[in-house]
Amino acid sequence: MPAPRCARAARAAGHNPSFLGASARPVLSERGCSERKEGAGTLQEPAPGAQKVARGACACTRAGSLHKECALSLPSGASLRTHMAAGAVAGIMEHTVMYPVDSVKTRMQSLQPDPKAQYRSVYEALKKIILTEGIWRPLRGINVTMLGAGPAHAMYFACYEKLKKTLSETIQHGGNSHLANGVAGSVATLLHDAVMNPAEVVKQRMQMFNSPYKSVLACVRTVQKTEGFGAFYRSYTTQLTMNVPFQAIHFITYEFMQEQINPRREYNPRSHIVSGAVAGAVAAAATTPLDVCKTLLNTQENTALSSVNISGHLSGMVNAFKTVYRLGGIPGYFKGVQARVIYQMPSTAIAWSVYEFFKYFLTKHKLEKRAAF
């Protein structure tokens, strides 16, 4: 009879766990768990004929319990539904918690702001908006953001995880590949932005100073009637031009940070928060010029466009780049960079920590249910 691979499995099988040695403790490996004798520093391989458990589950699940180490491990074989559910929750949390700062960022990126809407810092802007326009003003448009963020991030994380795994197996034979991370993040962005772009257009128009729209529905109807359906995707190419490098930098940086501070890839909230914050800050600072152009295309800022004799609607990334340069020169491309970094650091930290928690929680729950039978 094959030897049990852990003390708890030994008890369940009717063995005396003391034969393993008092100092033995379970150690997690990619394939499951095995025993390590303290001081020997070697892993004891599973006994010949030991049955493998699907989806990365440790053999101890067959005994009706989970090791602490196994329970803390990040699931490598989580289902598509798990990735989508975790991604949807993470996306909604990311966008809603930091939404007031996002409102400030949109206003600070205005190329020719109203004198009443000129701000020197994020704190000053929030204070001024609340005092002069009301406490709920920084949250205008949050409902349409939540509506778009759920499905957008569900597809985004599911696509990223599937592609990352497939490409890593091809490029690195199952190991971590920065190229695979970057490519997977970039492709996932195509799906994310296709859903999120219309919500971004409505959101940013609601956020602007003296916005003429009384509600999200009124904004949608007015834009559709006066500018056509294409207005909701006018900034799509610019959004992709910004988000593809943003997400490539973001995912590469996140996975690199995880390699440094969480090499065993256990569920470690602190490592997910730190890695997410660093990844968000680096990616946000690097892509601010593209974000300024996207904001101009989304808001169609009348005062700014009129000052450079542009009538009608501005369209196209190249035209947006030229207009920003004419209005603000090189510094114009970095308007709102402080607010953008301050927004993205906690946003990506929240997104990754919430995503990894729900992925861990949902998979652990599934494993425990399976172990109970």
Give the SSE map.
Blueprint: H1 7-12, E1 25-29, E2 32-36, E3 43-44, H2 68-72, H3 80-97, H4 99-108, H5 122-133, H6 142-171, H7 178-207, H8 216-227, H9 236-261, H10 269-286, H11 288-299, H12 302-307, H13 317-332, H14 337-371
Antiparallel strand pairs: 1-2, 2-3
Helix pairs in contact: 3-6, 3-14, 4-14, 6-7, 7-9, 9-10, 9-11, 10-14, 11-13
Protein architecture, described:
The protein has 373 residues and is mainly α. Helices cover 63% and strands 3% of the residues. It contains 14 helices and three strands. The protein has helices at residues 7-12, 68-72, 80-97, 99-108, 122-133, 142-171, 178-207, 216-227, 236-261, 269-286, 288-299, 302-307, 317-332, 337-371; strands at 25-29, 32-36, 43-44. It has a three-stranded antiparallel beta sheet with strand order 1-2-3, with no helix packed on it. Strand 1 and strand 2 form a beta hairpin. Helix 10 packs antiparallel against helix 14 (337-371).
A few lines on this structure:
The protein has 373 residues and is mainly alpha-helical. It is built from 14 helices and 3 strands.
Main sheet makeup: 3 strands, antiparallel
> What general form does the structure show?
globular
Number of DSSP strands? 3
Strand order of the largest sheet: 1-2-3
| Uncertain regions spanning at least 5 consecutive residues | 1-57, 59-73
| Helix/strand class | mainly alpha
Give descriptors for this structure.
globular; mainly alpha; 373 residues; 3-stranded antiparallel beta sheet; 14 helices; disordered N terminus
